[in-house]
């Protein structure tokens, strides 16, 4: 299957997930002032509260994933601005949308548990679980100033590594390490989606 077609299918699938309740979200359509249906795409998403049962691994996973999604969205924003490939731009748009929704859900759950949304621990303490994202300010700076001819290759390589780190982070709540069922389900979804993204990007990088 051509990489461009794969991206289109990926974007469509993840756009639907973002709009219609992926990872514990529910959606409702706004009505306009006249009482009729809103314009297409005007959908509000509300995070379904996670059950109260949770442990420190659940909290740590959500805190670290919030940071991770934020950095992924920084990468995506750069690609939306600088990429010369339509398939890369479409991928970046999908990543930005879905990871933005994930961050909202995770923040809502932590707030519902009266837990901080940022970790107070040294991320290096959790290197066996993947640690915090390996993506740093230096790498982002290099990508920002990359020549146009090199940008897409550098972007895909960085995002492949970044999403692999997300897969590793899901181990924090895997195999019964976490207690909260919604967090465990979110981790499963993240592991599956990021693994699919990696496979897709490897195909795109070889194109």
**Amino- and carboxy-terminal Cα gap:** 11 Å
Biggest sheet layout: 2 strands, antiparallel
Total count of helical runs of at least 4 residues: 6
Task: Tell me the helix content.
Answer: 55-70%
What is the ordering of alpha helices and beta strands?
HEEHHHHH
- Average pLDDT confidence is 79
Shape: elongated
**Overall SS class:** mainly alpha
Please provide a written account of the structure.
Helix content is 61%, strand content 5%. The chain has six helices and two strands; from the N terminus they run H-E-E-H-H-H-H-H. It has a two-stranded antiparallel ribbon with strand order 1-2. The longest helix is centred in the middle third of the chain and has 27 residues, at 56-82. The radius of gyration is 18 Å and the shape is elongated. The termini are close together.
Give me some keywords for this one:
mainly alpha; two-stranded antiparallel ribbon; 207 residues
Question: How would the blueprint of this fold be written?
Answer:
Elements: H1 3-19, E1 25-29, E2 43-47, H2 56-82, H3 86-112, H4 137-144, H5 148-169, H6 181-206
Antiparallel strand pairs: 1-2
In short:
By secondary structure, the chain is mainly alpha-helical.
């Amino acid at each position: 299957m051509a990489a461009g077609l794969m991206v289109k299918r990926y974007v469509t699938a993840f756009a639907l997930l973002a709009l219609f309740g992926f990872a514990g979200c529910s959606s409702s359509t706004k009505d306009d002032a006249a009482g009729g249906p809103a314009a297409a795409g005007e959908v509000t998403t509300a995070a379904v509260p996670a059950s109260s049962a949770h442990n420190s691994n659940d909290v740590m996973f959500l805190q670290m994933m919030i940071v991770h999604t934020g950095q992924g969205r920084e990468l995506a924003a750069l690609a939306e601005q600088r990429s010369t490939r339509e398939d890369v731009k479409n991928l970046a748009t999908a990543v930005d949308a879905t990871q933005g929704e994930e961050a909202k859900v995770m923040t809502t759950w932590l707030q519902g548990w009266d837990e901080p949304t940022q970790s107070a621990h040294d991320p290096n303490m959790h290197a066996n679980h993947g640690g915090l994202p390996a993506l740093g300010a230096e790498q982002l700076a290099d990508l920002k100033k990359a020549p146009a001819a090199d940008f897409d290759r550098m972007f895909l390589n960085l995002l492949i590594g970044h999403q692999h780190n997300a897969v590793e982070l899901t181990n924090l709540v895997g195999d019964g390490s976490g207690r909260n069922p919604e967090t465990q389900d979110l981790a499963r979804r993240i592991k599956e989606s990021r693994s699919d993204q990696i496979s897709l990007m490897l195909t795109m990088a070889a194109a």
